[in-house]
Amino acid sequence: MDIRQIGRAIRHALGVALRALWRFIHRFQLIRWAILLVLTLILVMSAYFTYEAKTVDMADIKSSLQTKTEIYDHKDNGVGSLYSQKGTYVSLEHISKNVQNAVISTEDRSFWTNPGFDIKGILRSVVSLIINRGSIAGGGSTLTQQLVKNTLLSQKQTFLRKGQEIFMAVQMNRVYTKSEILAMYLNNAYFGNGVWGVEDASELYFGKHASELSVGEGATLAAMLRNPSYYNPIDHMDNAISRRNLVLTLEVEAGHLTSAQADAAKQTTLTLNNNYNEDSTDKYPYYFDAVIEEAESKGFSENDLLNKGYKIYTSLDTNYQDALDQTWANDNNFQNDASDGTKVQASSVAIDPQTGGVRAIEGGRGTHVFLGYNYATQLHRSPGSTLKPLMVYTPALENGYHYDSELSDKKQSFGKNNYSPSNWNGVYQNTVPMYTALANSLNVPAVWLLNKIGVQKGVSSLKRFGITLEKKDQNLAAALGGVSTGVSPLTMARAYAAFANDGKMPQTHFIRKIVDATGTTVYQADTQSKQVMASSVAKEMTSMMMDTYNNGTGASAKPYGYTVAGKTGSTETPKEWNVNGDKDQWAVGYTPDVVVATWTGFAYTTKTHYLQTGDGGNVDSIFKSEMTNLLPETTQTQFNVTSASAKVAATTASSAGTSSGSSSGSVWSDIQDGIQDGVNTVKDKAQEWYNDVQGLFN
User: Fold this and answer.
1) What angle do CA 297, 301, 307 make, to 5 degrees?
2) Do 217 and 108 fall into the same domain?
3) DSSP secondary structure code for residue 343 in this structure
4) For the chain, how many structural domains are there in total?
5) What element of type H or E holds 484?
6) Does residue 277 sit within a domain?
7) Which of 357, 397, 483, 554 is deepest in the core (most CB within 10 A)?
């Protein structure tokens, strides 16, 4: 069989197959069914899109673009606004025709006559859909569709999203006039360099109102809409001029300019003049982030917070915040960057110990990212020795020990695992008084004491302070902060507030109340405090922790002329690294007016990213600078206790002055001491029972 015979055979076979297929299709009317199926699908999709368009809150778009949520400080003074993708809203009458015509000529020439969509644009989208296999590359959208996309939908380009966009655009065209739609579009458009809206863009680039823009300036702003980062004149003047000239040509084609007018505008020089005043939101970025996060935790959505026109009354003290900002503005307070340029991080929070209101916050160093990571509120790092007062010394006082009780300071091992802590300075004594062990952050006495009172009492004490240890962390090493359970500066500030507030721990909060656009209070903060220890215990702890900054590990962090109580802490790098440095450094300090908790360290600790001992700035320099700047802004309330070391010195001096006295006097003194010890024992035992019972209800 030759090739021609084979070809005839194939054609015959194909003919037979096609005739059979046609008879099958004709017999079962498959074409009709296919048409019916397609029409049904179109009907269902149209019904779905129509329902979505009808049920969306279209009437709220204009008000949301015009409305900002206002933020107030602790004295009810306005300090800024929260907003999303909107600048200063102006009506169409206050927007130059030169901008309006340029935008319409470039983006949507049929704007004034189309029903919200353009058939030619849809056909281009269908072609794009086929070419890009289900994904629409962009283009083909009217101004109304773009406004719908920017205010109601995601930026994802799909067939489903395109269908929603078209039907919603039709609905928007019915709800609003063309002038209102154009005004909303121009007030919502992004013009680069962080500026939304034509009014703020006019001020940023040309130093004038949108109503005053010339033909060339209007064309320049319209040119940016295609790609703001590429066509804005601040960053790319040549690109901006080239695109401006193209827009002017398009305006001629659309009939908005004559050729002579366009040519004249092309010859003008673009003169930049920045007269834009940024919103004060940028002045308190981490605080505003924390406000949004807290509001979201109370059931408010981010979208509502940015668009519903709430009035949010916060605990912010701008004087406190400015004081912390001064410290953060001075790089000399911080360790040098790593060799690869990685910046050491730090965070701090200042709260009112009576109310729990967060007065100021520093969420990190470097460029702020809106709702990015906040090291002051979201950090989870080991607290080091700042855990000792909460887990060891407070429950020790509650279980019969006193500020001057002698603690073992011998080099020794504990428990079945022979846990062997070491003092950071390598020095050991036979015994040491409790206040000295705390002030100098000695490790062996702390572990010895926790072993004596029992780990579980320490764990229960921590829980009262708002810190719950994981099961694997419930051991003697926790006395030194060697735990995987991480804490944040906000957590530590809240815990230490109990010492400054007579044993009552407040609920920390950024927001005092939220009022909606109608004036109704829709949220009120819970400012109740919880008694976590007796007032006498809080006072005795304060007297010991005053020595931390007087003559202990925090002496170099003490602000000159002020008395501060608190604790410092650090976590070491792994021994196998063979480096002299820390992973984390902490300083927590307080007066009766304010509690400040500060942390520093690298975001990710490695062999090349750790806090080097003796390398300039550390937590001491940060904390000292903060408190030096901040404490003059407080009411400077004095402590009602003296430091433990001062009490001991006074007692020693008194004893030396009275000598030994008579033997009868000595006996009577011994009797008094015995009675007092008995009373103290009964009080401590009663306090212990009280805490145990209270724990059952917590």
Assistant:
1) 135
2) yes
3) P
4) 5
5) none
6) no
7) 554
From residue 187, give the alpha-carbon distance in Å to each of 39, 172, 183, 198, 248: 40, 16, 6, 6, 22
In what helix (H) or strand (E) does residue 650 lie, and over which residues does it extend? Answer: helix 644-658
Check: CB of residue 413 under 8 Å from CB of residue 422.
no
Q: Is 107 a catalytic residue?
A: yes
Is it the case that residue 675 has pLDDT exceeding 60? no
pTM surpassing 0.70?
A: yes
Shared domain check, 377 and 421: no
Pairing mode, strands 595-601 and 581-590? antiparallel
Average pLDDT over residues 113-134: 68
Q: What is the pLDDT of residue 132?
A: 55
Amino acid at the residue 472: K
Which of 50-54, 137-141, 194-198 has the highest average model confidence (pLDDT)? 194-198
Lowest mean pLDDT among 154-158, 317-321, 645-649: 154-158
Confidence bin at 491 (pLDDT 50/70/90) = very high
Question: With contact defined as beta carbons under 8 Å apart, do 600 and 620 qualify?
Answer: no
Is residue 180 within 8 Å of residue 147, measured between CB atoms? no
216 inside domain: yes
Q: Does one domain contain both 306 and 449?
A: no
Q: What pLDDT is recorded for position 121?
A: 65
The range of the structural domain enclosing residue 503 comes to 68-79+282-333+350-381+487-662
Strands (E), 73-154: 78-82
Confidence label for 163 from pLDDT (cuts 50, 70 and 90): confident
In contact, 311 and 527? CB cutoff 8 Å:
no
Higher pLDDT, 29 or 598: 598
Query: In the prediction, which pLDDT does 662 show?
Result: 41
Q: Tell me: do 116 and 216 sit in the same domain.
A: yes
Q: Is 293 a catalytic residue?
A: no
Annotated catalytic residue within 64, 107, 408, 633:
107
DSSP state of 407: E
CA-to-CA dists, residue 320 to 283, 348, 349, 484, 510, angstroms: 13, 12, 10, 32, 14
Instruction: Tell me whether residue 652 is exposed, middle or buried, using C-beta atoms within 10 angstroms of its C-beta: 0 to 12, 13 to 18, 19 or more.
Output: exposed
The catalytic position among 202, 385, 570, 643 is 385
